[in-house]
Design goal:
This protein has 137 residues and is an alpha+beta fold. The protein has 2 domains: 39 residues, no CATH class; 97 residues, no CATH class. The chain has 5 helices and 4 strands, in the order H-H-E-E-H-H-H-E-E. A 4-stranded antiparallel sheet has the order 1-2-4-3. The longest helix has 18 residues. The two termini are 32 Å apart.
């Protein structure tokens, strides 16, 4: 994390280099607001597993995975008049050494059902380069 002015300067420099040299970046961050401005596509990872992948606009505007929904809901928005989702993640992150059976997110998921505790969801193609790993998304 950098202060806002330095982050903006570095982001602008990265975008300029990307355009000038026609290169791609693998940008790893917890800051979805910055990723939204820098990236064309975003992958969301939970406990080392890709749970959702989509182009930026689609992922931010209509997240499918419950973990993605909670992450997007947690991003601060500067306009208090805009109504935001109240998706909140409950519980504790499991120990990554002893991963839960089935879906890794099931013990914190509001959509959890029995299948989630038994079967790990596969990453399904939802079209337009979008993929999601959830039994109910």
């Amino acid at each position: 994390m950098l202060d806002v002015s330095i982050r903006t300067s570095i982001s602008n420099l990265m975008m300029w280099i990307r355009e000038e040299l026609s290169i791609s970046y693998l940008y790893i961050t917890h800051d979805l607001a910055t990723a939204k401005n820098i990236c064309d596509k975003i992958g969301i990872i939970y406990l080392g597993k890709l749970v959702e992948e989509a182009n930026v606009e689609e992922l931010v505007d209509s997240p499918l995975h419950p973990y993605t929904q909670a992450l997007i809901a947690a991003v601060p928005y500067p306009d208090p008049s805009v109504e935001k989702s109240k998706a909140i993640i409950k519980g504790e992150v499991p120990n990554p050494i002893y991963l839960p059976s089935g879906c890794r997110f099931h013990n914190r998921c509001p959509k959890m059902q029995e299948i989630c505790t038994k079967e790990e969801p596969i990453l399904k193609d939802r079209g337009n380069g979008r993929r999601v790993a959830c039994h109910f998304a």
